[in-house]
Write a structure and sequence with these properties.
CATH superfamily of chain A: Cytochrome c oxidase-like, subunit I domain
Radius of gyration of chain A: 23 Å
Shape of chain A: globular
Radius of gyration of chain B: 22 Å
Oligomer: heterodimer
Structural class of chain A: mainly alpha
CATH topology of chain A: Cytochrome C Oxidase, Chain A
Order of helices and strands of chain A: HHHHHHHHHHHHHHHHH
Number of domains of chain B: 1
Shape of chain B: elongated
CATH class of chain A: Mainly Alpha
CATH class of chain B: Mainly Alpha
CATH superfamily of chain B: Cytochrome c oxidase, subunit III, four-helix bundle
Helix content of chain B: over 70%
CATH topology of chain B: Four Helix Bundle (Hemerythrin (Met), subunit A)
CATH architecture of chain B: Up-down Bundle
Number of helices of chain A: 17
Distance between the termini of chain B: 44 Å
Strand content of chain A: under 5%
């Protein structure tokens, strides 16, 4: 390292960054390094959140509170929800795959703001550690991931304040990431690459980032007000001082309903990348996919009060939000049928990536159906705050997003490492996850319909057997992580060499070596105008893209 | 801002990479504008909360929430004038007249500080405190959050003013970004104040 010569531009400062394995622990500006940092960091938090979920399921195998104290149970479920949402799914479906793939897809060598990108990532580990440490300091927050007042104002203040602070940090990280994605997708596209030529994941990330930038600040403001209520004893959300708890719910859900789309829209995009490759067919209905993503973004902003049908919401508001929520089923349904049509008649290779994607389609349609049911006021009032909601939610975020994360890891692992993952272990992983997941959460629909409330450590003894079935499913899910972990470590060292493009894919990230060089391509970035041109004459595609390049020159 | 350009050992590519870099251009203003949209949404959340309280939470009979108009009207004028003076600073920089540019910037920062001082005077003369009632709390939260923005803006303007100095300054008519960024931010803060003035004082 030469210290005497100060770096004159970014290119030089990158040379000073550590190489090899060490760079994953550094303030690296390389989008590929940052993407993998997000992925591994997120997965570590997933394991922690999974242990907490296990603790919840152990507690619920018996109707009495015996495994842990009641307030510890509250802390565990709060930490489980917060970790899984803010530290695992949001950073991984957005930050990890977004950072790794988007620059490839737009034909850039890095994100628009590499330094901001690194800052956004490095806000996550401290926030996560802070959140978990609160459990050991004075007890973690006890009011669930929603932190509804008056519960969040009356429970011990220290844990709640640490919770607020770490969620603010994570929200800030998310906003910085969103700004970066919008700028990269809109401004950094390679010349000649039109918006409607972009791979679908770019559209999904553009929509998601719009949601992030517009809704996360509202949550930040709300949490600041909540912290004033706790610290300075103001009365924003305290009815005794003239405040209003429903205002908190409105502001909270203005972020947290879009947050569901922030977790699931990128997953839609990733599935749309994976299916065409392994079915050797173009993505069905590209244009309708784009418009349905944007429709979900717009509608996603006007459905939040369907979480509040039992909060004294006036009838006109209930009517409006029921209709708006039901409308969301239309673009989502379009996407579902497009994926099925993509599979239809394709030469499907049933590898782990496709299995997880198909698992996603099945789980997501089930979660979607219960979602439409929950949007109907008469039904919602019946099952509000019961395990039916828990089941619906996990079908969307686990059956939806997490299945897609695993599918994406199987699909892009050869890109990350140059090695293939073991297919047999992958299939075992899928079977265990799929069976375990459905065994765990399908019975919870029944529990909810019969009136078992969520978030309570004790329940009526008539629910014991079904809860034990659910816990058995959770055990299977826990076991399913083992073949996956073994697979990832073993294949990194001893896996089959994948070659640059093991799936014969056409999207730009595969048109370079695996793992890619630091500048993404040896020469200039390729112009890919037909990212899903499968089943077409390969020569025709090649000629056309060469012509395009020549035209430009 | 640059895109990472050169690998450590491949010299011949530098040429093409530089071309690409020029094509990509400078997107910092775009990023800042996106950030300001996000920042504006924070204010939007506060405004929505305040308006909801107005609509559904009647003021309790013994609580005081009275606002005088004179001082905030003066504040509005101060900020609007400061937006104009900042604009003049930008024009001066384009003419490469750094002395005049600095003078306008100093005036802008001064107006910002005058706004803050006058806001403090208002705080100390108001008949209610932070925790008196929910309107009072929201009033202080909103004006305080805006005041924080003005303070940051005043610091930014001072730095820009220092960097615009004539012989060795970073900001010249070839590198106008820091000044333009601070200007966009300042106009944003002024715009928010106008909305805040209408909602808190006039409605």
């Amino acid at each position: 390292m030469t210290i005497s010569i100060p770096p004159v531009n970014e290119g030089d400062s990158i040379k000073l960054q550590p190489k090899g394995f060490l760079r994953y622990f550094s303030f690296s500006l390389d989008h590929k390094v940052i993407g993998l940092q997000y992925l591994v960091c997120g997965f570590l938090f997933y394991l922690i959140g999974g242990v907490l979920a296990g603790a919840i399921r152990i507690e619920l195998t018996s109707p009495i509170s015996d495994f842990m104290a009641r307030d510890v149970y509250n802390q565990v479920l709060t930490l489980h929800g917060t970790i899984m949402i803010f530290l695992w799914i949001v950073p991984v479906v957005n930050g990890a795959f977004g950072n790794y793939l988007i620059p490839f897809y737009v034909g850039a060598r890095d994100m628009a703001f590499p330094r901001l990108n690194a800052v956004a990532f490095w806000m996550i580990p401290p926030a996560g550690l802070l959140l978990i440490s609160s459990y050991f300091i004075n007890g973690a927050a006890e009011s669930g991931w929603t932190a509804y007042p008056p519960l969040s104002i009356t429970t011990p203040a220290a844990g709640q304040l640490i919770w607020i602070f770490s969620v603010l940090l994570l929200g800030g990280s998310s906003i910085f990431g969103g700004i970066n994605f919008i700028a990269t997708i809109l401004k950094l596209r390679r010349p000649g690459l039109r918006l409607m030529n972009l791979p679908m994941y770019c559209w999904a990330m553009l929509g998601t980032s719009i949601l992030v930038v517009l809704s996360t600040p509202v949550l930040a403001g709300t949490l600041v007000l909540l912290s004033f209520d706790i610290v300075a004893h103001t009365g924003f959300f305290n009815p005794a001082l003239g405040g209003n708890v429903v205002v908190y719910q409105h502001l909270f859900w203005f972020y947290s309903h879009p947050a569901v789309y922030i977790m699931v829209l990128p997953a839609f995009g990733l599935v749309s990348e994976i299916l065409p490759v392994h079915c050797r067919k173009p993505l069905f209905g590209y244009t309708t996919m784009v418009y349905s993503i944007m429709a979900i973004v717009v509608l996603g902003f006007v459905v939040w009060a369907h979480h509040m049908f039992t909060s004294g919401t006036p009838p006109w508001m209930r009517l409006f939000f029921t209709i708006a929520t039901s409308f969301i089923a239309v673009p989502t349904g379009i996407k579902f049928f497009n994926w099925v049509a993509t599979l239809w008649g394709g030469r499907i290779s049933l590898n782990s990536a496709v299995l997880f994607s198909c698992g996603f389609i099945i789980n997501f349609v089930l979660g979607g159906i219960t979602g439409v049911a929950l949007a109907q006021v008469p039904f919602d009032i019946h099952v509000h705050d019961t395990y039916f909601v828990v089941a619906h939610f996990h079908y969307i975020v686990y059956g939806g997003s997490v299945f897609v994360i695993f599918s994406s890891i199987y699909h892009w692992y050869p890109k990350f490492t140059g090695k293939l993952l073991n297919e047999n272990l992958g299939r075992i992983h899928f079977l265990l996850t799929f069976i375990g997941f459905n065994l765990c959460f399908a019975p919870q629909h029944w529990l909810g319909l019969n009136g078992m409330p969520r978030r309570v450590a004790e329940y009526d003894p008539q629910f014991t057997l079904v809860n034990q079935i659910s816990s058995a499913g959770a055990l299977l899910m826990a076991i399913s992580t083992l073949p996956f972990l073994w697979n990832v470590f073993y294949s990194a060292f001893k896996g089959t060499i994948a070659g640059d493009n093991p799936w014969q894919a056409l999207t730009p990230e595969w048109l370079t070596s695996s793992p890619p060089p630091i500048e993404n391509w040896e020469g200039s970035a390729p112009l890919v105008t037909k990212p899903y041109g499968y089943g077409l004459d390969p020569k025709a595609i090649k000629n056309e893209s060469t012509e395009n390049i020549e035209e430009e020159i | 801002m640059t895109i990472l350009t050169q690998s450590s050992d491949s010299k011949p590519e530098v040429q093409t990479n530089q071309e690409e870099e020029e094509e990509h251009g400078d997107h910092r203003m775009f990023g800042l504008a996106t950030f300001l949209v996000a920042d504006g949404m924070t204010f939007a959340g506060f405004f929505a909360a305040y308006l909801t309280y107005k609509a559904v939470n009647p003021l309790l009979p013994d609580s005081i929430y009275e606002l005088e108009l004179a001082l905030p009207a003066l504040n509005t004028i101060l900020l609007l004038v400061s937006s104009a003076t900042f604009h003049r600073a930008g024009q001066a920089l384009k003419r490469n007249d750094s002395k005049i540019c600095q003078r306008w910037l100093l005036l802008t920062a001064g107006l910002g500080l005058a706004f803050l001082a006058s806001q403090m005077v208002e705080y100390f003369t108001l008949p209610f405190g932070l925790t008196d009632n929910v309107y009072a709390s929201t009033f202080y939260a909103l004006t305080g959050f805006h005041g924080l923005h003005v303070s940051l803006g005043a610091i930014m303007i001072s730095i820009v003013c220092w960097q615009a100095r004539s012989p060795n300054g970073r900001i010249t008519n070839k590198n106008t970004f820091p000044l333009e960024a601070a200007e966009l931010y300042w106009h944003f803060v002024d715009g928010i104040w106008v909305i805040l003035f209408i909602i808190l004082y006039l409605l």
